[in-house]
Amino acid sequence: MHRRVTTGALAVALAGVLAVSACSDKSSDSGSGGASGSAAASSGLTIAPLAQIDTQGNEVPVASEADALTPAGDGNADCPETTIAMAGALTGADAALGINIKNGAQLAVDQHNEANPNCQIVLRTFDTEGDPQKATQVAPQIVNDESIVGLIGPAFSGETKATGGIFNQAGLVSVTASATNPTLTDNGWKTFFRGLANDDVQGPAVAKYLTGTMGKKKVCVIKDDTDYGVGLAQAMTESLGPAADANCSGDVKKGDREFSAIISKVTAADPDAVFYSGYYAEAAPLAQQLKTAGFQETFVSGDGANDPQFTAQAGDSAKGAILSCPCGPAPDQFKSEYEAAFNQAPGVYSVEAYDLASILMKGIAEGNRTRPELLSYVSDYQGPGLARQYEWSPTGELTSSLIWVYEVK
């Protein structure tokens, strides 16, 4: 049970964390992508944490990071060289999100290897472009490589849906740092574990925060056609109740860049907030075009848009936007180590990927070096990471999940 904290107390608790972007779960098409750190610098805007909230939209205290698992361990691990994999979008329109995950996992692996010369871990990366069809071609490459004993990913919900059965049949443990569609854990897979809250947690939490703390009375919910966008929009609409105005709800397609039709509906309805359920590649031009059309109220989006690429692409139109994420901000030490390694700030899912890689490597260091052994280890795992406490239910959901709310400043 969490006690509610005041805004002032929360501000003190947040003093030690960096305002970086959070998480998102993706299911997207290909295009040109970029790295998030340079984008943040060019925009002149930051994505700053406002509050950690529960499903009722109430603020809850920030957990201590002092006892978090570290990839270095005690430095005495002894194992033969062992391989883990990461799968997600490393190229394409939403590539920044996959790169954040890859870098977070790589940082953990590098720190483990430096501290444990007698137990070296190899991280192999697989580019799915965030495309479910491409992911079904990549998944067999992963499962057919018998040296791979664990997987971080897939990153987006659509590709996870398309490949989960393949990994389950192979008995390969799959821990995702970002896929948040709630139905993924309804498939009966025994190998899938979600490293953050799903959209059935995110939707109600953000909806209650908007109508409660922020006092919003009328919200237009706009969604893209990805598994992520549809699932989050449904959770948001149901939780908003009468505050969700059906007259200005609408649909766009992944890859759209022109939104005059839905913007006309929004301006006619005159809401006090717009919630966009989708990714930054579409959220940025939507925010720009809303602003150009005279919309001066609050633009809100979920983890799919919570990346410095949103602020870089939307420019000044992003200022004041509210962005949510099941992922939290990066602690100072992690931020410094990440920036030193990759010459950019950590972004959405970087901390989750770091934690999940650390859990896999701890299992390997403790002697779980086959697929069945590592799967059993993760199934029974309990412990704190930098982002949160990790312990999974039999379906692969975290037993305790919270959401972060951010503001673009």
TrEMBL record:
Annotated keywords: Amino-acid transport, Signal, Transport
Signal peptide per UniProt: 1-22
InterPro entries xref list: Leu-bd (IPR028081), Leu_Ile_Val-bd (IPR000709), Peripla_BP_I (IPR028082)
Residue intervals of the Leucine-binding protein domain: 83-376
Annotated family: Belongs to the leucine-binding protein family.
The protein, known as: Branched-chain amino acid ABC transporter substrate-binding protein
